[in-house]
């Protein structure tokens, strides 16, 4: 499947408390753009699940008044999803690009997820059917991995070979994450197929 024919929805989770960061990460600016703007502008119509209306130019905003975490936020996004696959991320990955989403969503799997030394469920592409069939069976995002029959683990070695900067995977939880150099572990890609 070529990237030009890829079709997937995008869900950006923007409702976290940002306690460790000390302010709302989604509104923090780097080079005059907020974290949320930096991610959302990569995509045509992202579905943004947020605890309040955000000032952004594109996307559909879905209010999350429950604040029940990522799984509950994805439940709120489900009615807006129509494509076969869904790329899911959070606003705390400000260096992420569409190129990453294209690469991850090009894999033939129920879940394609990045491994930076630990699995990153919020840099992942999920089959919409798989999400709908299993959303009520999970409490946290990594529970999806336990339920999937076909998983593609995207390793940092593959990403590096494709020329995609590993900085794309910086998950900003505190100020040090912005200032320290990011060094993910060397990981290899692999398919996991369960019977």
UniProtKB/TrEMBL annotation:
A Gene Ontology biological process annotation? Mo-molybdopterin cofactor biosynthetic process
Q: Does the keyword GTP-binding apply?
A: yes
Transferase recorded as keyword: yes
- Keywords noted in UniProt: Cytoplasm, GTP-binding, Magnesium, Metal-binding, Molybdenum cofactor biosynthesis, Nucleotide-binding, Transferase
Where in the numbering of this chain does the MobA-like NTP transferase domain appear?
10-128
CDD domains recorded for this chain?
MobA
Q: Which InterPro entries does its entry note?
A: MobA-like_NTP_Trfase (IPR025877), Molybde_CF_guanTrfase (IPR013482), Nucleotide-diphossugar_trans (IPR029044)
Under the heading SUPFAM superfamilies, the entry gives: Nucleotide-diphospho-sugar transferases
Pfam families in the cross-refs: NTP_transf_3
Q: Name one GO molecular function term.
A: metal ion binding
By its UniProt entry, which PANTHER family does this protein fall under?
Answer: MOLYBDENUM COFACTOR GUANYLYLTRANSFERASE
Q: What is this protein called?
A: MobA-like NTP transferase domain-containing protein
Please give the organism.
Sulfolobus acidocaldarius N8
